[in-house]
Amino acid sequence: MNVERENQVAIERFVQYIQIKTVQPKPDYQSAFKFLKNYAQELDLEYTLVTTGEDRQAAVLTWPSSSDAKSILLLSHIDVVPVFEEYWTVSPFSGEIRDGKIYGRGAQDMKCVGIQYLEAIRCLKRVQYEPKRTIHCLFVPDEEIGGAEGMKKFVQLDQFKAMNVGFALDEGLANETDVYQVYYGNRGAFGVDFVLKGNTGHGSRLIQNTAGEKAQFIINEMLDYRTREQQRFEQSQTGDHPLQLGNITTINLTKMSGGVQINVVPDQYRLFFDCRIRPGGEGEFEEFVTDLIRRTRKENDQEVQVEYLTTRAISRVTDINQPSWWLTSMKHTFEELNCKTNWTIFPANTDGRFLRYFGCPVIGFSPMINTPVLLHDHDEYLSVEVFLYGIHIYTKLIERLTKE
Ligand SMILES: [Zn+2]
């Protein structure tokens, strides 16, 4: 197969993958597994289906090496987020190509990367490359809903331990400029659910110590914290070390509920804050919340309940100051290809955090420059050019990572 035909096939496979409706909340994983199994046959890779959770499986496509050196793991998730079809100019699961852009849900997040890994392997096989490390392409379910029955379970299985993974690549984000974003950590997610109780009565009276006053106090304090972080971020932009979203803590009030009737002072309000904590900031933030609860309770004890509803995903950071084979391989590849890079912290969570939890180094990287960030957005697309160049990058990268 020549390069031109290979490019055509890569685009074809990408379009086919987009056309499989692996959309939450009811992803068609079975069709995706059929597609991946055929792909594995086409590329002469071993194919294993691993049960991760209730009614959930992950596919592993393996290019084995005879060496017992640590393997590399190329991670991608199969599922995509729902669409609001009325806002799309093309059908979101058509994979339509217009003006050199491949449209579809998952075009950036992250069906592109799953295909790019496999097409890079195709290129390496064409030139009869022989990897000195085993290469696993892992396709997991349910990343978009937290990975509880996907990657979170997978890393606990004996099958995972047997894979002997020494380094993993995971997803990153697109960038509008010509600089590739390389993520070596993620912020922790911290959901704070305040249940605020107070005195109740008729809406015409001047009732003291109400749930509303407590809500006011909590909202003010939480949003003040947010403002302080925002100022820190803005002020840094003119200095030598401009902060990025991954370096600050963000707080958003995402849910408010309460009230029974318009003339009744309710006995409780409930507030939910979605907080994303900068690496290293967990202790300080937790102290702030604990102190806030203490101060809110001061007036009338035990009337503030606080629950941490979401699992607290502590941020993990992969050490990029310590020399290592995978770091050298990555840096050399970027140098060789003249790729400008920005090494930073991923602002949200990806499945890679479960690997970092077990001490496995993970780098989040989606080779998408000169591309607007359209993940989870309408008209998600990736240009053919960027997609194909991404395969080239992965080809070099995988080769370097498995050369010795
Ligand atoms: Zn993703």
Commentary on this structure:
This protein is an alpha/beta fold and 404 residues long. The protein folds into two domains: 3-186 and 315-401, Zn peptidases (Aminopeptidase), CATH 3.40.630.10; 188-307, Alpha-Beta Plaits, CATH 3.30.70.360. It has ten helices and 17 strands. It has a six-stranded mixed β-sheet with strand order 1-2-6-3-7-16. Helix 1 runs antiparallel to helix 3 (111-126), helix 3 packs across helix 10 (384-401) and helix 8 packs across helix 10 (384-401). It starts with a helix and ends with a helix. The mean pLDDT is 93. Zinc ion is lined by residues 77, 109-110, 143, 171.
Give structural attributes.
alpha/beta, Aminopeptidase, 2 domains, six-stranded mixed beta sheet, four-stranded antiparallel beta sheet, 10 helices, binds zinc ion
CATH superfamily caption of the largest domain? Zn peptidases
* CATH-level-2 architecture of the largest domain: 3-Layer(aba) Sandwich
End-to-end CA span: 27 Å
Strand order in the sheet with the most strands: 1-2-6-3-7-16
Which kinds of small molecule does this entry bind, naming each only once?
Answer: zinc ion
What string, H for helix and E for strand, traces the elements in order? HHEEEEEHEHHEEEEHEEEHEHEHEEH
The mean pLDDT is: 93
The number of distinct helices, counting runs of at least 4 residues, comes to: 10
Radius of gyration: 24 Å
What fraction, in percent, of the residue positions are helical?
Answer: 25-40%
* Fold-level CATH name of the largest domain: Aminopeptidase
- CATH class (first level) name of the largest domain: Alpha Beta
Major pleated sheet = 6 strands, mixed
Low confidence ranges = none
User: Which secondary-structure class do the elements indicate?
Assistant: alpha/beta
User: Approximately how much beta-strand content do the residues carry?
Assistant: 15-25%
